[in-house]
């Protein structure tokens, strides 16, 4: 998972360049990914209102009911409606993903900005520390953090944030290095502006392209990671519906209720696919060097 | 490839591993509750916990404990004893390592069997329907949760068709079919996913070479298409493909950790998760440290083999 960092190949993607919206809204991948993400957003915001039934309401007259009009995705071992549970699961998934990626982007972008702009020993020290984090498999690093912090959905957010912060740092650093010696940055320096102001007003906005792309890709991986941690019983705790947990519950009943093993996984896959397509599409649009290569 | 570069890379690797060992060691002091408490259980008196802490050496300064711990690992391969079973963890790791490595290797093989043909098929006709098909396959491959892929394969091949067992491990010594039938589903889970991801990289590696002047020249001077592909394209693309395999090994090992747990595969990943769930810290430390070592060594070998295979690549 950690291998998903964006490489900019020296190009300077411009999120503010003219025609960005026009190009983005005509790009196939952006449209497809955007549509899925929009759908997921609707499910997350209005999931509790849209769900036909209470996700935790048990119905012992309909245990393991196969998909039907009354239960589009069937029911589980307690007769709970899977469709309603999956809609509620979207709330959990999206919340965890956004908070985790928010934290890791805030931390990673700040570190990358400092390392890239100042260079020298600051850069050396920060990047060597990041190398240490990169030396651990992502899943294992998350499991270690969960071992220290204990189970629970908040701790899962922190674990995911710690895993992805180094990727944000690396991506930001690369983008910052490619713009830090531009004329407008030198001009700002000549005008005597402070380092903080130059970084926030001139460098960061022009380095946003790869960061936006990385945000979309990280959201995809955060949804995957939350599902994985919950699947192993480390993330979201019962009875809250979470896609990963629903799959691990469904594992015991694969023979009598295969839908329990199919629909939650499908929900995870489609959401992750949405953010991945959006991220790849945005990279095409933002980085001219990628255009036409794929 | 200069000796200087190799030495510098080795130096960095040792620094990184030192950092990893610090983090791994820090797991125990950072934890809520002491290992002595875990060993004795919640009903133990404070006195007996304190006595065991002294016996385990937990009352000594952190620096001394770190040197003692890392010294034992480096000089004697001694990772301490499991808090749950009381047996040496080094032995446990050695017992589990073959299971993990055989799974990773078979998974890589399956991945390559998917990625190489798919990559060739799409690169030779960019923009075609089969190219689109491979690119959709890649996108889906990146997005499928590995544990769900495992569940789907179990549903199809174990529950419905009944062809393959859904969990467990048999060593190769037990016979070819018992070994193969157990390894096939977990390896396919990882292999299908990493294969569909690698297909994309194989494709762009080939496209890169296909666009080179020497390929056009070979075509122009009338070299048959087959031999252009075999002699010029494949050999030059092989370098990037080796790098891809190296980089993919990291992702692959991550997926193996997850898949081992689903298929009750007695490897290192399963060791790490059960250690976490049972709070068996020495076992968790061993699993983390070893995977970091494997990870960094693979990265180093990838980089070095890259410059070894391509004499044009020199590192200043």
Largest interface: A-B, 47 and 54 residues
- Determine the number of helices of chain A (DSSP H or I, runs of at least 4 residues): 11
Strand content of chain A: under 5%
Number of β-strand runs of chain B: 0
SSE order of chain A, as H and E?
A: HHHHHHHHHHH
| Class of secondary structure makeup of chain A | mainly alpha
Strand content of chain B: under 5%
Mean pLDDT of chain A: 82
Q: What Rg of chain B do the Cα atoms give?
A: 24 Å
Uncertain residue ranges of chain A: 1-13
What's the number of helices of chain B?
Answer: 12
- Secondary-structure-derived class of chain B: mainly alpha
- Rg of chain A, rounded, reads 22 Å
What is the total tally of β strands of chain A?
0
CA distance, first residue to last residue of chain A: 22 Å
Short summary:
Chain A has 294 residues and is mainly α.
Structural commentary:
The complex is a heterodimer of chains A (294) and B (316). Chain A is mostly helical. In chain A, 68% of the residues lie in helices and 0% in strands. Chain A has 11 helices and no strands. In chain A, α2 packs across α11 and α3 packs parallel to α6 (153-179). The longest helix of chain A has 37 residues, at 82-118. Chain A is elongated. The two termini of chain A are 22 Å apart. By secondary structure, chain B is mostly helical. The N and C termini of chain B lie close together (9 Å). The model of chain B has no long low-confidence stretch (mean pLDDT 83). Classes of the chains: A mainly alpha (294), B mainly alpha (316). At the A-B interface, α4, α5, α9, α10 and α11 of A face α1, α6, α7, α10 and α11 of B.
Keywords:
heterodimer; A: 294 residues; mainly alpha; 68% helix; 0% strand; B: 316 residues; globular
């Amino acid at each position: 998972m950690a291998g998903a960092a964006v490489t900019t190949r020296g190009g300077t993607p411009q999120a503010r360049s003219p025609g960005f919206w026009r190009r983005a809204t005509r790009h196939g991948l952006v449209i497809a990914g955007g549509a899925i993400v929009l759908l997921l957003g609707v499910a997350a915001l209005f999931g509790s209102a849209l769900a036909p039934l209470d996700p935790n309401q048990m119905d012992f007259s309909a245990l393991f009911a196969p998909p039907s009009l009354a239960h589009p995705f069937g029911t589980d071992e307690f007769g709970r409606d899977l469709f309603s549970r999956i809609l509620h699961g979207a709330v959990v998934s999206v919340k965890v993903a956004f908070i985790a990626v928010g934290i890791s982007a805030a931390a990673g972008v700040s570190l990358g900005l400092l390392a890239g702009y100042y260079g020298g020993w600051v850069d050396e020290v920060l990047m060597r520390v990041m190398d240490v984090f990169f030396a651990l498999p992502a899943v294992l690093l998350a499991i270690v953090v969960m071992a220290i912090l204990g189970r629970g959905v908040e701790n899962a957010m922190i674990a995911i944030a710690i895993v992805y912060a180094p990727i944000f740092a690396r991506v930001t650093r690369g983008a910052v290095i490619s713009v830090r010696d531009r004329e407008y940055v030198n001009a700002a320096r000549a005008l005597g502006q402070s380092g903080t102001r130059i970084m926030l007003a001139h460098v960061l906005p022009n380095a946003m392209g790869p960061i936006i792309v990385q945000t979309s890709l990280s959201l995809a991986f955060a949804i995957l990671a939350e599902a994985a941690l919950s699947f192993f019983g480390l993330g979201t705790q019962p009875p809250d519906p979470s896609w990963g947990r629903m799959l691990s519950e469904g594992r015991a009943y694969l023979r009598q209720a295969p839908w329990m093993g199919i629909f939650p996984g499908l929900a995870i896959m489609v959401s992750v696919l949405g953010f991945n397509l959006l991220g790849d599409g945005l990279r095409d649009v933002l980085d001219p060097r990628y255009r036409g290569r794929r | 490839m200069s000796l200087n570069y190799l030495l510098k890379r080795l130096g960095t690797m040792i620094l990184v591993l030192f950092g990893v060992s610090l983090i791994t060691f820090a797991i125990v002091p950072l934890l809520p509750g002491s290992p002595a408490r875990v060993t004795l259980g919640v009903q133990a008196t404070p006195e007996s916990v304190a006595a065991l802490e002294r016996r385990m050496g937990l009352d000594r300064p952190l620096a001394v404990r770190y040197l003692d711990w890392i010294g034992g690992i480096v000089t004697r391969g001694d990772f301490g004893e499991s808090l749950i079973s009381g047996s040496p963890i080094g032995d446990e790791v050695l017992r589990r390592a073959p299971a993990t490595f055989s799974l990773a290797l078979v998974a890589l093989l399956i991945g390559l069997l998917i990625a190489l043909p798919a990559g060739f098929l799409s690169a030779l006709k960019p923009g075609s329907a089969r190219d689109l098909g491979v690119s959709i396959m890649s996108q889906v491959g990146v997005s499928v949760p590995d544990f769900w892929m495992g569940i789907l394969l179990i549903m199809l091949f174990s529950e419905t068709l009944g062809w393959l067992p859904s969990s467990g491990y048999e060593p190769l010594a037990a016979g070819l079919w018992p070994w193969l039938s157990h390894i096939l589903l977990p390896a396919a889970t990882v292999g299908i996913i990493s294969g569909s991801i690698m297909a994309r990289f194989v494709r762009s590696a080939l496209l890169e070479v296909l666009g080179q002047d020497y390929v056009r020249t070979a075509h122009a001077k009338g070299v048959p298409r087959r031999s252009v592909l075999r002699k010029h394209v494949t050999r030059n693309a092989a370098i990037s493909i080796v790098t891809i395999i190296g980089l993919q090994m990291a992702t692959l090992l991550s997926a193996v950790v997850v898949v081992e747990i689903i298929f009750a595969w007695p490897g290192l990943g399963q060791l790490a998760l059960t250690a976490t769930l049972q709070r068996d810290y020495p076992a968790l430390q061993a699993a983390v440290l070893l995977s970091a070592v494997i990870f960094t060594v693979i990265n180093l070998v990838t980089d070095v083999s890259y410059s070894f295979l391509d004499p044009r690549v020199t590192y200043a």
